[in-house]
Write a structure and sequence with these properties.
The protein is an alpha/beta fold. It is built from 12 helices and 8 strands. It has helices at residues 34-58, 95-105, 129-135, 149-158, 168-172, 199-216, 221-246, 264-270, 288-301, 315-324, 348-362, 368-372; strands spanning 88-92, 109-113, 139-142, 164-167, 255-258, 273-277, 305-309, 327-332.
Length: 387
């Protein structure tokens, strides 16, 4: 277990196992499901490759990796759980979670993302072919915290008995730690779900993924543990680079105004202040009175830069920047990883490095420490990322 993180109970029985959804009644722990899952794995394996190819065609041609790794359990390369045709299938949702999972899982399972990069994951409706992929899943990792509800509902309706739908966010923080804001008002009942912008919480995500894979694939325990340990070291090094760069940002400038409020948990950890966001909870445009209020707040707080989204361009935010004299930076990435699958920077680390460099430089800091940080994956990322 990962020690020293206040957000993750050390006793598994105390975890908020919200991932134990109604689709798998009577489940008490991931270990209890192993016996059930092992038998189901062999029965579903024949369907996997054809169903995933159909998903790829429906979600902008996701090209499935041809061929599988050799049989056996080579702890150096990871091997497979029980041979090419019986390789475990892990289904994920948004690209940052797919990347985190791929670092822990390596090639002991096929990791398949469902939500295309650059898509509004809050409203994304998975294609019907995704249902067949869910029927062959051995475990499903979603963010939870009500981020990807249509995809969660599809999973609940289609996964086999005993297959866990693991809601990483719900297992990482308690309801008392939920954050609410303009984009995610408390009276709307949906907390801010963007935990992956906080590297300290991503380590908890990785821990939960490791635990579930060990329970599902005990033969791979050493492999998963080694990948997890290396991933934590990598994230800790990244965290150190973040703090070194952020220390160069004048304290009075560590204020964020963004299109979509994805940095609430990050701000709490790193001592920043989220002034506001443009996108309301219905994902529409803000009202004129809301725009006026934000302009007044930006001027009162002397905010020097406002950050738009590469995925969701906002003329309103640009107008607000012009009105207040703030610099408008329009290329923050939400859950759209840099580059293309297979590129060195196409990863959760690459995503956050890009965003943190952008924020540091726009607010008057020196991002040299972040620039020096070398993005890499713990293992080869063979996951499928819909584009």
């Amino acid at each position: 277990m990962l020690a020293g993180l206040r957000t993750r109970p050390s006793d598994p029985s105390r975890r908020s196992r919200a991932g134990d959804s109604p689709a798998i009644p009577g489940t008490t722990s991931c270990c209890d499901q192993v016996a059930t899952n092992v038998e189901a794995v062999s029965k579903r394996s024949v369907l996997r490759r054809s169903s995933i190819r159909r998903l790829g065609a429906a979600v902008v041609a996701v090209a499935f990796v041809a061929g599988a790794t050799a049989c056996g359990s080579d702890e150096t390369t990871g091997g497979t759980a029980s041979g090419a045709d019986d390789q475990l299938q892990v289904v994920t949702t948004v690209a940052p979670i797919t990347s985190i999972a791929a670092n822990i899982i390596g090639n002991r399972a096929e990791v398949v993302g469902i939500v295309p990069e650059g898509t509004n994951s809050h409203t994304f409706e998975p294609p019907p072919s995704a249902a067949e992929v869910m029927t062959t899943a051995d475990v499903v990792f979603i963010n939870g915290l009500q981020l990807e509800e249509p995809t969660k509902e599809l999973a609940e309706a289609n996964v086999a008995d005993g297959v866990r739908i693991v809601q990483l966010g719900d297992e990482t923080i308690s309801p008392e730690q939920h954050k609410y804001d303009f984009s995610f008002p408390e009276d709307g009942g949906k907390p801010n779900p963007h935990l992956w912008t906080d590297p300290t919480l991503v380590k908890v995500y990785a821990d939960i993924i490791r635990d579930n894979m060990v329970a599902l694939d005990p033969e791979g325990t050493d492999y998963y543990n080694a990948n997890f340990d290396e991933f934590v070291v990598l994230v800790d090094d990244f965290d150190a680079a973040i703090r070194e760069s952020f220390d160069t940002v004048p304290e009075e400038q560590r204020k964020l105004v963004t299109y979509h409020d994805a940095y609430a948990y990050f701000a709490d950890t790193y001592g920043w202040n989220v002034i506001g966001a443009i996108q309301p909870s219905d994902f529409g445009d803000p009202t004129p009175s809301e725009v006026v209020d934000l302009i007044d707040q930006i001027e009162a707080e002397n905010v020097s830069a406002v950050f738009g989204s590469e995925v969701f361009p906002s003329p309103v935010l640009e107008q607000i920047a012009n009105e207040t004299g703030a610099t408008y930076v329009d290329d923050l990435r939400d859950d759209d990883l840099p580059g293309a699958p297979g590129d060195e920077d196409h990863s959760w680390l690459g995503l956050m490095k890009f965003n943190f460099i952008t924020m540091t430089e726009a607010l008057g800091g020196d991002a040299s420490a972040l620039e020096r940080f070398a993005v890499r994956n713990v293992t080869v990322d063979n996951a499928e990322y819909p584009q």
